[in-house]
Predict the structure.
Amino acid sequence: MLIKKFPANIPGRTAAICQIFLKGFLISLAAGSLFTGCATPANGKWFAENGKNDALREVMKRKDKIIHLSPKAAAADKPVLLLLHGATDDPTEMMDIVREWNGRYDVYLYAYNFHKPVERAAADFTRELKRIELENPRAARGTIVVYSYSAIIFREAVIDATDQSIFASVSLIQLVPTAGGSNLASGMENPFTAWLVSRVSKSSQAENPYGSLANHLWDGDGNRKFYATISGERMHTILLEEDAHSLANTTDETIRRRYENGLGTNVLMIPKSAGVTHDYFPTHPVALEYLRKLLK
């Protein structure tokens, strides 16, 4: 994308801030999110082949609903697998995972609108998870897989829940989570820049590693509440070496602590040589092989 340069007579700091805002505004119009690159082409073939066209329509509406993807007759007595997509208008980016595990798990997908404030998306997820657990008691002991931005949605849901029993027995797998925020949002350290960007992208606001939400999610009381609910042995994280979204190389001690708080202790690292990218993580064979190790 070509970004128009500002005139040289604008003071450097102001020009830089305006440049960031303009770039962010254009990206947000084009892709719906500033800093979270989770864009995978639509994939409706699986739905048609499995008589799930109605489910596909519900998924693409992104009405903050947990959609049941497995056939009810075939799902009896199977463990529950609940998927959360990234910051994308196309939740079908998770379909390669659905294809592989639909036979061994009872699969659900939370299709949410990532343009909403993270607090609302998280509250809707909690409400939906409670509904699913009432309908299917096995969901209370299910495995939840979050990808990229949805790690923030899930963490907010756990921290803000008034009834921690909803999450008390679930297992969590994080796929390249934007833990502590996103490195691509590091330019939001300036409060004015953060304010401008947050006007056009709620997901970018949520991924600001310097904002109050970052402190709430990844540090202090929020972090303690999360781990009091999701024990370390029930949480696994898969990362990419030299992931552009990752805060792994930050020199800021506070941000580094928040980043590490978001990972847990059970971490797998995919080497850069594997050719996996953050944006297309759920579709890459190597990434799926790493996930396979945790789901078997």
